[in-house]
Each structure stands twice: as structure tokens, then as C-alpha cells.
Design brief:
28 strands; single chain; 24% helix; 8-stranded parallel beta barrel; TIM Barrel; alpha/beta
């Protein structure tokens, strides 16, 4: 018989304030997300700019706070100046990162105007690979200056009279990665100095903006965290965020390794925080640089052959191979191919939500989170239609209810051990012992007297009786209790058929500040209390 599980929350268990940008998304023109889903002039719902309004309208309903754009690896060779003005005069370029033609039909202005239509904040990535400091200065001037200069007047001539007022600027993408054009993997000090000068210059153009410097592309980088330290040591005084990425992988069928992957994110965040604060102490600075986890994902990947003796962390070797048979691809927006990921909707939803709960538990330092595939999670699509996957529900519940202050949760539950494993030479995971089957995080919106508790049951077989102790929140009553699960883990929602969605729970009690309920196997649960 399953042991009782318990979550204890108290008004004194404060972690930190939750940023409105914490549950955001990432956009890069790979495959069909831009050419087909976002932009298709032939689609029945296309507006005058060729944007699919069914996609825009679906995202508008989610309250999506921000989108990092327009990439990604793509940005390290993108020449933004060739993407503005009349479309007939724009230049077509090769994108060596993804071996595709970039027609620039969707250019700098279109990305920002699409964000305006969605009602979301654009978080902009600057080309720090092949781009220069002057390019970055011209970009910020074009984007944010009110007028009276060459670049700002050109924006007005191109049809956008008011400044876009982009407030967040990423100075490069994965600049420690040897796969990146203009990579600085061998010279962190050089990149740090370039960021110092670029951030200084663009802040002198618009002193209201914030900037992010690239940290490690993954915790598996052999130079992490020494590379990050060397970079940040050069530019600490002029940046506001360290931008980092991580994609957690688990073998097929190992659900516990997938949902326990949030522990590796927490290790990464803790190490980054320590590194940042060490550099702050070197600079004798009271300033706290925050963390932007602006690419993340949780996925199932088959195990690949290992190559003992080649070195555990050498990511460079595989990126210096050249295939003469590989050709460039032109993505036709009206001929988009559906991308189908293995597994059903529920596992994808739980995997992503587990990472989001880890970010929420570190909301004092993680202020931006941009899920890779977040747009598809919020508005699943094919050539013709938009619908809601299971991930839509967990994602939007976090956007709606994870507001105010992140609260520490004390979890008592049955545990399991995760043996170490290696997906391939690079993605190797040490084992974890004593992992709670119950995963939880909490947000307290003091202004509205609302307490939201988010719970994942990682156990694929067992239902748990759960007690949530909120005795410290006197007078709070249940205003919402929902759970989401799927009996068949291969089931996917589809257009016209929403098989997986939250269900209202009524079989619970709240007495003397103790909320009692049962949480089903592999379930996502949201409990909201109001005072």
C-alpha cells in the first residue's frame, strides 16, 4: 500500500519573487515554426503580412509573457540589415547553421510586429558571431530610438513610426560552442571583452535596456564553469543576465529518468549561481547578475554507441566534419511537413512541467525561462489547423497561477533511485538517490491572497494519498483543484479531439489547514487556495 505523501508550506518559507518572464518561449527559424506555422501567405487565415492569425489568436489566449527571437544558432550569421525594407529588395542568404536558405520574407520588423500582434514581449538575440559592435549599435538605434538619426528614421520610413522599445538583448548565442559561427570557445576572455564593449555601447544608445552574456551551452561542456567565469569576469559590470541552455535526455521507457531530470537542472542552476556570485565577489560588486535559461527541453532519446578513450566532454570533434552530399534546403511555408515526436502528449507535458517547477523553485535567480518548442506546446499545429496539446494546459496554468513569490515546499514521499546512464559520449548523467516521487513547487500571490501549489506524481504505477499542510495561511479556502493524466501514454490530442486535459477534482477535504486528496500515477495537479 502506498505511503502517505505530504507537502508543507509556510509563509516564512520564501525563495524569491517570480519574474513575469519565467514561463516564456523560444523561436528560431528551423524547419516549419516560422515558414509554415508562423508565416504562410497562402493560409486561409493569413493577414496582410502573411502571418497565420489562427496561430496568433491561439497564442494570445495563453498570456505568453515573452519570446526569445529570432534564434538561436541562426543569429550568428544573420545580417539583419538585409531583412528590412521592401521585400522585393531584400537579400536571400545561406544559413550555414541549419543548411537552409533564408529568404528574409520574415525579417527584423516582421518578427517584432508579430510579437506585437501576439501581445508578447520580444527578447532579442544579437549576432555576435559574424556581427560587429557597430552592427549591434545600429540594430538598437533602428529598433529603439525615437527618431532623428539615420537608422531610427529608416525604421519610420519602413512603416513603424514608434520605437519597438525592446528591453532585453542577448549578446550572442552559445558562444562557447564549436558548432557556432564566430565561436569563442578557445578565447573566453576575447568574447567577454567584446560583450563589455557591445553592452556598454548599446546601453549608451538606450539606457533602459538589459543585456545577457552567453554562459555555457550545456553543463556537459568540458570548460564549464571555467569558461563562464572567464567571460563574466570581463563584463560583469555591464550585463544583467547570464544566458544558458540545457536539454535533458532520458532513454526510451525510462520515465523516472525523464521526470527526475529536473534535478540535473537544479545542479546546473546551483553551480551557475555559485560561479556568478564568485565573480561578483572578485569585482567587489553588490550587483546580482541573474540567470536566463532561454533554451531548455526534456526529451526521450535512444542510446547511442559510446567511444571509450575519445574523452567524455569533447563536443568539438563531431562539429568539424564536412559532408559534400549535404545540400541547402528552401522551406516552403505552404508545404510544411509535420514533425512528430515519439511518445504521447502526457509524457511531453510532464517532462516540460518538471523543468518548469525546478525553475520556479529557483525563482530568486532564474528570472527568464524560454522553452524550446514552447510555441508548439502552447499552440500545436499542422498545415491547416491549431489545437491544444496536453502541454498547453500545464504551461498555461503556470503562466496564470505561478505569480508573486516562489515558496519553498517541504516534500515527504516515497523515493526512488536513478542509476547513472549515458545517452552518448557527451550526455552522461550521474545517478541520483532518494528522489521523491512527489515533485512540487508553490507560488504565493500576496496581493490577491492566492496560493498555488503545483504537483507532479512521478510514479507510473502508484496513486498517493497527499496532504498539503497550509496551516500557516489561515482562512484560505480551495478555489481550484484539477488533475491531468492519461491512461494510455501513447495518446495525443489532435485537432477536434482533446483527449487529455485537466479535470476538476471534488474528492478532497480541507480541515484545520490540511488539504487532503489523492494524486494519480503520472499526473499533473494544480491546487489553488484563496484567502
Amino acid at each position: 500500500m502506498a505511503q502517505n505523501a505530504k507537502i508543507t508550506i509556510h509563509p516564512s518559507y520564501v525563495i524569491g519573487e517570480i519574474s513575469e518572464r519565467l514561463f516564456s518561449a523560444f523561436l528560431e527559424p528551423i524547419g516549419t515554426i516560422v515558414n509554415g506555422t508562423m508565416f504562410n501567405p497562402k493560409h486561409p487565415t493569413a493577414d496582410e503580412q502573411g502571418f497565420r492569425t489562427d496561430f496568433i489568436d491561439a497564442l494570445k489566449t495563453t498570456g505568453l509573457p515573452a519570446v526569445r527571437m529570432p534564434g538561436g544558432n541562426f543569429c550568428s550569421a544573420w545580417q539583419w540589415k538585409d531583412s528590412i525594407g521592401p521585400k522585393s529588395e531584400r537579400k536571400v542568404h545561406l544559413d550555414p547553421s541549419w543548411h537552409q536558405y533564408i529568404t528574409n520574407e520574415v525579417g527584423h520588423d516582421e518578427y517584432l510586429q508579430w510579437a506585437e500582434k501576439v501581445g508578447t514581449e520580444p527578447l532579442y538575440t544579437v549576432n555576435m558571431g559574424t556581427g560587429t559592435i557597430q552592427d549591434a549599435m545600429d540594430l538598437v538605434e533602428y529598433t529603439n530610438h525615437k527618431g532623428g538619426s539615420y537608422w531610427s528614421d529608416l525604421r519610420r520610413k519602413n512603416g513603424h513610426d514608434a520605437p519597438y522599445n525592446v528591453k532585453m538583448w542577448y549578446l550572442g548565442n552559445e558562444m562557447d560552442g564549436p558548432w557556432q559561427l564566430g565561436s569563442w570557445d578557445k578565447n573566453p576572455e576575447g568574447y567577454g571583452h567584446k560583450v563589455l564593449e557591445t553592452s556598454k555601447a548599446i546601453k549608451w544608445i538606450d539606457e533602459s535596456i538589459q543585456t545577457a552574456v552567453c554562459g555555457s551551452s550545456a553543463p556537459f561542456m568540458e570548460t564549464f564553469p571555467a569558461w563562464d567565469e572567464a567571460v563574466l569576469d570581463k563584463c560583469y559590470d555591464v550585463v544583467d543576465y547570464v544566458s544558458v541552455h540545457h536539454y535533458h535526455s532520458a532513454p526510451p521507457g525510462d520515465i523516472r529518468a525523464l521526470l527526475g531530470g529536473s534535478l540535473y537542472y537544479e545542479d546546473y542552476i546551483n553551480n551557475l549561481t555559485a560561479m556568478i556570485d564568485y565573480v561578483a565577489s572578485k569585482h567587489r560588486s553588490p550587483k546580482k547578475v541573474m540567470i536566463s535559461l532561454d533554451e531548455y527541453g526534456c526529451m526521450v532519446r535512444p542510446l547511442e554507441p559510446l567511444h571509450p578513450g575519445y574523452g567524455r566532454y569533447n563536443m568539438a570533434r563531431n562539429h568539424y566534419k564536412f559532408d559534400p552530399e549535404r545540400s541547402y534546403v528552401l522551406h516552403d511555408p505552404d508545404n510544411m511537413q509535420d514533425r512528430v515526436f515519439p511518445g504521447g502528449d502526457m509524457i511531453h507535458a510532464l517532462g516540460s512541467a518538471s523543468v518548469q517547477l525546478a525553475m520556479l523553485r529557483h525563482a530568486d535567480r532564474v528570472k527568464i525561462g524560454c522553452q524550446t518548442g514552447g510555441l508548439a506546446a502552447l499552440a500545436a499545429s499542422n498545415h491547416d489547423h491549431i489545437w491544444r496539446s496536453a502541454s498547453y494546459h500545464s504551461f498555461t496554468q503556470l503562466i496564470r497561477f505561478a505569480r508573486g513569490t516562489s515558496m519553498d515546499v517541504r516534500v515527504e514521499s516515497e523515493t526512488f533511485d536513478m542509476p547513472g546512464y549515458a545517452i552518448e559520449d557527451t550526455s552522461q548523467y550521474t545517478g541520483k538517490e532518494g528522489v521523491n516521487f512527489i515533485d512540487a513547487a508553490c507560488a504565493w500571490d500576496k496581493e490577491n491572497n492566492r496560493l498555488a501549489v503545483f504537483v507532479i506524481n512521478r510514479n507510473e504505477e502508484t496513486e498517493y494519498p497527499l496532504t498539503v499542510d497550509i496551516r500557516g495561511f489561515e482562512g484560505y479556502k480551495v478555489s481550484l483543484a484539477t488533475s491531468m493524466t492519461a491512461e494510455n501514454l501513447e495518446v495525443r490530442n489532435e485537432f477536434g479531439n482533446e483527449f487529455i486535459c485537466p479535470k476538476a477534482e471534488e474528492n478532497y477535504t480541507l480541515e484545520n489547514g490540511e488539504f487532503k486528496i489523492h494524486v494519480g500515477p503520472l499526473s499533473w495537479n494544480v491546487f489553488v487556495f484563496e484567502g
